[in-house]
Design goal:
Elements: E1 2-13, E2 16-27, E3 31-35, H1 42-48, E4 59-67, E5 70-71, H2 79-85, E6 86-89, H3 100-110, H4 117-127, H5 131-134, H6 147-159, E7 165-169, H7 177-190, E8 195-199, H8 203-209, E9 212-220, E10 226-235, H9 236-241, H10 246-252
Parallel strand pairs: 2-10, 3-8, 3-9, 6-7, 7-8
Antiparallel strand pairs: 1-2, 1-4, 4-5, 9-10
């Protein structure tokens, strides 16, 4: 079942054509990885899925993104509600300047959560594999945690609002190898509950964690500007062992990028 169906997606920043003609389907309870060289539009496309590009004044999104069959950019769709269903974890851990507890409780409180907040915080931290490490220090500042713990806290914060999808923009690039492995293990555990899309520069990470991989590359548009486009999208095993496109093979084997 497709969670997202994307057809002819184009993204502009003022007159700059950042991403050209992307079409891709994202399936439920899978991890989809976006890989490719810097400047190829991976993160720009990722931010289209929860309308984060709306927050950039010069950004313009054309084409179609359907989320469970609903046009994500339809006039009746509230971007704030979109972001409650589609959570995001950023490249660098960005906990709020609050306690560990209040970081996780923040979103549900804003959304008017009426249930047992203590239970929700505990279950969110458990699902983010952090509860055992912080259960005795919930009132301490989130900044007291290590980088890897902070990133797992941000994941707990994202899932506390019961999203359907988790977007992850290079979630382990600022972490050491041990913390990176923990995040990768966590992604495997979470995909039973969530659909995950991850942007990563780390091809080995994409090969380890994802079910499907989209390879983006940079080309020159009519004005000689760099623009990102999707080259190939397939099951991860095929992308890494038997890619259809020469550019994909060249990138995977390290000939460029």
């Amino acid at each position: 079942m497709n969670v997202f169906s994307v057809h002819d997606l184009n993204v502009y920043y003022s007159d700059f054509h950042a991403v050209r003609d992307v079409s891709v389907d994202v399936k439920e309870h899978e991890i989809t990885a976006f890989i490719g060289p810097s400047g190829c539009g991976k993160s720009t496309v990722l931010r289209c899925f929860n309308r984060m590009n709306d927050l950039i004044e010069t950004a313009r999104v054309e084409g179609e993104i359907k989320y469970h069959g609903v046009d994500l950019y339809g006039g009746e769709v509230d971007p704030v509600q979109v972001r409650r269903h589609i959570g995001m974890v950023f490249q660098k851990p960005n906990p709020f300047p609050k306690s560990i507890y209040d970081n996780v409780a923040f979103g549900p409180r804003i959304a008017g959560f009426k249930g047992n907040l203590d239970e929700l915080v505990e279950s969110s931290l458990e699902r983010a594999a952090l509860w055992d490490e912080v259960k005795d220090i919930l009132d301490q500042s989130a900044f007291a945690l290590s980088g890897g713990q902070q990133q797992r806290l941000c994941i707990a914060r994202a899932i506390a609002t019961s999203p359907d999808v988790l977007l992850m923009d290079e979630p382990a690039s600022a972490l050491d190898p041990i913390a990176t492995l923990r995040i990768e293990e966590l992604m495997h555990e979470l995909k039973g509950e969530y659909t995950i899309i991850i942007v990563t520069h780390n091809m080995q990470q994409a090969a380890r964690v994802s079910d499907r991989t989209a390879f983006f590359n940079v080309s020159l548009n009519e004005q000689g500007q760099r623009t990102g486009q999707l080259v190939e999208f397939d099951e991860t095993g095929l992308i890494f062992t038997n890619p259809k496109e020469t550019a994909t093979e060249d990138y995977i084997t390290g000939r460029f990028g």
